[in-house]
Amino acid sequence: MTTSAHPRQLRADAARNRRALMDAAERLFAARGLCVTLDDIAAEAGVNVATAYRHFANKHELIAASLRQKIDQAVLIAEEAAGTEDPWEGLIQFLERTLALMTENRALHDVFLPGQGGDWLERLEERMQPVVSHLLLRAREAGEVRSELEPGDLGVALQMLATVGDVPVAEPPALLRRYLELLLAGMRPSDTPLPGSAPSPSEVLAAMPEARNLSPRLRR
Amino acid sequence: MTTSAHPRQLRADAARNRRALMDAAERLFAARGLCVTLDDIAAEAGVNVATAYRHFANKHELIAASLRQKIDQAVLIAEEAAGTEDPWEGLIQFLERTLALMTENRALHDVFLPGQGGDWLERLEERMQPVVSHLLLRAREAGEVRSELEPGDLGVALQMLATVGDVPVAEPPALLRRYLELLLAGMRPSDTPLPGSAPSPSEVLAAMPEARNLSPRLRR
Amino acid sequence: MTTSAHPRQLRADAARNRRALMDAAERLFAARGLCVTLDDIAAEAGVNVATAYRHFANKHELIAASLRQKIDQAVLIAEEAAGTEDPWEGLIQFLERTLALMTENRALHDVFLPGQGGDWLERLEERMQPVVSHLLLRAREAGEVRSELEPGDLGVALQMLATVGDVPVAEPPALLRRYLELLLAGMRPSDTPLPGSAPSPSEVLAAMPEARNLSPRLRR
Amino acid sequence: MTTSAHPRQLRADAARNRRALMDAAERLFAARGLCVTLDDIAAEAGVNVATAYRHFANKHELIAASLRQKIDQAVLIAEEAAGTEDPWEGLIQFLERTLALMTENRALHDVFLPGQGGDWLERLEERMQPVVSHLLLRAREAGEVRSELEPGDLGVALQMLATVGDVPVAEPPALLRRYLELLLAGMRPSDTPLPGSAPSPSEVLAAMPEARNLSPRLRR
DNA sequence: TATGAATGAGAGTTCATTCAT
DNA sequence: AATGAATGAACTCTCATTCAT
């Protein structure tokens, strides 16, 4: 029922609509969370709901698309951080900027994802994994962080820090900085190694979504 | 009519139903979050929805009652931890057990709180604050943790760790343990002090609620 | 299921409760119309809803009982008016005082009555009919009113005037007086007789109820 | 979204549905009063409730729309009556035809009107006032009615007569005619003037509504 | 292809009435 | 006889999704 095999190139107006929808979704998700109505998003984009359904099979898909976009930015951030001279600074920069990206959009860390959207998660993993691994290995080899620290740990750290963004204080960035510092301190080499092992990147990703904030309707 | 003003003694069957409702609510909240419908809760409890409304003025009240219960347990945990010999062990025990409590019930960390229910939050703060302060001061004075660590930091740490509970791994407790250890390492005395300052306990509490997972209907 | 054949004499406390319920009903109906809940009435009376159901088979019965009471007063008013010296003054007095009774209680003229309650209507008719007839005949014979005026016309006149009570003016009685006077002027002997004929008293009574203001629930 | 802001041209099927809804509403309001449920109206119209909500923001809006329609007809009637040769006949025609309109639809005289809908009431007054004034002044100047009769009196007269429509007789029009005649007789010039003064038109209008027959839910 | 319109399946809440103590 | 508690059937309104133009 969906446009079987979208041609690579959309008609100009269709592409414009798609973009308008994604932008609207990003704005509204960021402002009001995932519970905004598709009607609202369509209205914000200046198109009809049905048009939204021509571009996205359902609300999940639109959310996924909105996130995918953010994720592209995240990959970029990681790559830039990996290009830094100092391994330790690179790590910090990666965490800080990714965090900023996440907290800009509340949808990004209380998000969704059931079943089918999974593919983009995997593609994310493919792209993210090598650069984050590199970022971390560099730091490990330079003796800046504990040797048992794994890429998955960084993902969890980001998730945990994103949580801090919900605390209503006057200076959110300062608060984030405080707990980032706390975690960084914990990551430093130590005599007592961390127990257990990090989750795999795909497990971390599966957590991010975690279906929070979806209306019951979508849980089914 | 409301929860608070209930007569001292309920009739046997009413008490049974009330208990069944709270248990059902706890189970479903824990399993599916706060977005479960009252119909579902009532069904799970084996009573009619209207019965739920006899016991709780509205959905908020039921949620509040369910949480209040958990919170009593949390206070107890903190008190027991404060009774421990070793300050460091006490801190660990407090964090571990509170965390277990929180992860048992997903409602507890994506919870709510609109308007009038606010009173119990404050009562929680009143009861929790002194014992947690004591717990932390002891550890600080014993030189076990950084001197700039404040009670609010423990609250944030709990929130962050609760997030970890959402990561879908085979051994959730092991994962929690890993990141608890990471945070504990970060809390140890250090030459580079943490920047900024901790949020006040009431800010931390206000974050816990954060209206996540409430059905849009209840957001109003 | 109802107390089959209530003994003439109720137990003292039962009688007290019945009275309390009727009084409460009268107060609340007068103040808020027939849409008040039985729970509210019971609460106002200081008893439980179930007690209300012991005394009255359903809400209709309570309403009926509440009205019956008013109607007894109406009969009394008619009898006193019939005892007046001047026929014309008697008529006026009857209309004025009955009107006052009706407007005191908004339930009385936007009231109800489905099926079974009908018996009291008939008993009302039996008692009211002769005295009103007498009141009117006297006035007709004295040449004070048109000869084609019938008892039913007075009923209709009362209904119409009661409507006036709903107009929100500073001086409701003055307004009533104005239209009473208008109707009285119309009732005076005239060369052009009124067309048609008056409804029978029972038709007038059936109109009074007229099921206005009953919640859909009761319409069934 | 609301009625008022509808695009000039509805699509054919939407217009059909809108019409069906208004017709159904008119039928059911006329037959059972304003307490009918939207579900019932939608069912009668052969559409889903949600469709009703697409056309009318809520029950109030539907009621208002239904009445507005009737009111347009009422203004037309008044204008035609004002165009009559004979002042007295014009007055009679106005009352008779308006009455017929009102009794056709019981919603019209036990109607409502909360808050924002108020504008149409005022617009009604603006349109109705001048023509009714003219109608009455003509008759007064021609010596056909008492000189103290005011426009507001006609409004009250209509309300009172509409009440008569509730009396369940074989020939309702004949009954109405009888009491119309009674009131007309009372309006004729007389030596004893009417006491008090007429309510203002807006007071009369405020009475028409009077929130009768609205389901408790809507009373809020 | 994009739109306006329609829809079914709830969600939260209320109330007349009945059951069990 | 009176109560506390329970209930089922509504009622208003919403939303993700599909149909028809």
Oligomeric status? homotetramer
**How much β-strand is present in the residues of chain A?**
under 5%
- CATH class of the largest domain in chain A reads Mainly Alpha
What is the overall silhouette of chain A? elongated
CATH architecture of the largest domain in chain A, by name, is Orthogonal Bundle
Structural write-up:
4 copies of one chain form a homotetramer. With 220 residues, the first copy, chain A, is mainly α. Chain A has 2 domains: 12-56, Arc Repressor Mutant, subunit A; 67-219, Tetracycline Repressor, domain 2. Chain A contains 11 helices and no strands. The first copy, chain A, has helices at 12-32, 38-45, 49-55, 59-82, 87-104, 106-109, 118-141, 151-164, 172-187, 201-207, 216-219. The first copy, chain A, is elongated, with a radius of gyration of 19 Å. The two termini of chain A are 21 Å apart. Residues 1-6, 109-118 and 209-216 of chain A have low confidence and may be disordered. Chain B binds a DNA duplex (21 and 21 nucleotides) through helix 1, helix 3 and helix 10.
What structural keywords apply?
mainly alpha, elongated, 220 residues, Arc Repressor Mutant, subunit A, Tetracycline Repressor, domain 2, 11 helices, homotetramer, 2 domains, disordered N terminus, DNA-binding
Summarize the structure.
The structure is a homotetramer of 220-residue chains. By secondary structure, the first copy, chain A, is mainly α.
Question: Topology, pairings included?
Answer:
The structure is a homotetramer of 220-residue chains.
Chain A: H1 12-32, H2 38-45, H3 49-55, H4 59-82, H5 87-104, H6 106-109, H7 118-141, H8 151-164, H9 172-187, H10 201-207, H11 216-219
Chain B binds a DNA duplex (21 and 21 nucleotides) through α1, α3 and α10.
